[in-house]
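If you are new to this repository, start here. Below is one unmodified record pulled from the training split, so you can see the exact layout before writing a loader.
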Amino acid sequence: MSIVTYNNRSIANISAVPGAAKSLIHIKTLTASSSATITFLNGSSDVVLDSTYPIYLFKWINAHPATDDSRLEIQGTTDGSNYNTAATTTFFRGQHRENDSATALSYETSHDEAQTTGFIDIDASIGNDNDQSTSGELFLFNPSSTTFVKHFMSTSNSIFSSDGTSNTFVGGYFNTTSAITGIQFKQSSGNIDAGTIKLYGIKDS
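And here is the target side for that same chain:
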């Protein structure tokens, strides 16, 4: 086993790092600008979402809604155009207001889904003040499988509309044995005013 030492106390000029860092491969970054939807579709605009990687990771950074008290949502496609794949999910979150007036840890049936073909909540009640946004990540497992359903899970943190932190956890599956070839993000109402969403592939170990 070799040992790598960086003697100049800087990694600015390093072009490759050995080990686990190589397993996370950046595929595409999309930037919202009053966007109705943000779409990652395999084969479109250099997006890869197929059997190349067994796991895909989406990260959204400071996604800011145009409409107060709206939710970030996702759906998947199997045909490249219709985002309406049946999905079942669970949804829970912890909350704490800025003024310390209320806290909660709750399973929320109003945000879970049972075989919906509509869009799936992966966050809740995001505020649209200038300094409010949501950031988080979504893992999608083996989307190209034609044997199994497609599992996914997400974690996010947002500033909700009544001024506090909301840490949200969602898990579920697209109930199809067809390949999922695209994922679309949108707000439950209004546009995604600003923010970035990044797609990564995770290699086999």
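Two things worth knowing about this chain: The mean pLDDT is 92. The chain has one domain: 24-202.
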